[in-house]
Specification:
The chain is mainly α and 135 residues long. The chain has one domain. The chain has four helices and no strands. α1 runs antiparallel to α2 and α3 runs antiparallel to α4.
Length: 135
Amino acid sequence: MESVPAPSPHRSGKANRILSYVLVLLAVLLAVQVTLAGINVLAAASSSNATHSAHEGIGHAIELLAGVILVVGFIAKDRQAGILGIVLFLLAGGQNGWIQQQNSLRALHVLGAFFIVGITTWLLATRHPWREGSA
């Protein structure tokens, strides 16, 4: 059984704790985002403009938090979080472009979301603030 790597002793304690809480907030927003996407898909023709607007707004918040993860990851001397923050930022930014396509590229919106959730889950699982010695 593989163990979760311990946080690097070189990381800044305060920045590492901020990173952890931003990841928790991002995970909560992603859960809401996936729920809103499901509502929009299931109610396709009759879908409320309010749920679509909320989905779009939360998408922008997710992009902002990805940028925060990028910056705070590097400030915390957590190179891996900083690099994955870049990936999250690019994936979140691509979401708007992909969904506006009128061809098969539109499917990249769902694939991008899958990777955003996966990367966020992995980052959170390896850096959560309540784990002993993570700050």
